[in-house]
Predict the structure.
Amino acid sequence: MNCDETRREAVRRFEQVFGRAPSATAYAPGRVEVIGNHTDYNEGYVLSAAIDMGTFFLAARRDDGACRLTAGDLMRTVEFPVADPRPDKAAPWANYVKGIVHGLTRGRGARRGFDALFLGNLPLGAGLSSSAALEMSAGLALGALFEVRLDRLAMARLGQAAEHEFAGVKCGLLDQITSLFARAGSLVMTDFRALTTEDVPLGGDAVFLMCNTAVKHALVDGEYNRRRRSCEKAAACFASVLDHPVKALRDVAWHEWERHAPAMEPVAARRAAHVIGENTRVLRGRELLAGGRLEEFGRLMFASHESSRVNFENSCPELDFLVKTAGAVPGVLGARLSGGGFGGSAVVLIHPRDAEVAGHALTAAYAKEFGHPCDVRAVTPSEGARLMEG
Ligand code: GLA
């Protein structure tokens, strides 16, 4: 379903479940991480984009304190009190919204709940941030309902807190910031220390192919959090040997890594190499894009993947296969894993004229190797989240 169809279907299902029309609707897109892997929580840089798939969240106020929330795809409803939303393993999808409700109502003594339903057209578990799309669409729609006004950064933090406290993933702010700040046709360049964003136009001569391996990525299973701890450990190690302050790996230069890595615990040293290298690649990538040098930018994407594979060890055979295969497909400029890793999607940068043929070639090669095709879709950088009429 495209976005218009998804919205119409969401309204239809809302009316079917709740017997009335929604009074607040918001949309938030998923994202592609173009380059800058696991740099966000290391206070570094990322180039990302919103994609033209996302989640619609529809809500209407209730007079009592109950919150009824329906997952529009499963048509399952959970109920919880507005004054006490608690995470529940039996319906993990509801936890993101409960986290948002908690953040929006904290200290405000909300007494009135809501009926809500969400429906999206993002493939789940594909590494395209369906959870952030749900959080941000819920945040905008419920914020309107509760009359809580937050700026976009505060809204992004609310989503991050929902992930940390209600889903157990110690994520950075990349997914939420991209979903909220993205502009059509541009990449979002974020500095995660200053928490500032800048639009970097992609130009009309490139699109992305998102290749979904359908391998379930293990973010909630702890690999992500383990990587984060390794990075913090590496930063603390550099802080103890360098003669300038090191708050995060952002503060470590490559020559400092080269000098001190041999004395470090090897795994922490490799994790640090990835993050420090990624930050350099993002900054260089921004310059290359500004100069329209797409081929060189593409090479940085391949280098990023190689660093994920070897240093950060957050790839998997399916992603490695796609990236390697893409490298030999005519017209492909660059390819790498996108997002947390351990599965999910690979992103391929390609000229639009070559996209269709390359997509078929990748699907066919993948099917031959793994016995089933991978889902390949062309996406262009799209507009970020918004509150809609009605
Ligand atoms: C996930 C997290 C983000 C970011 C990426 C990796 O998408 O939610 O915060 O860390 O992984 O770059």
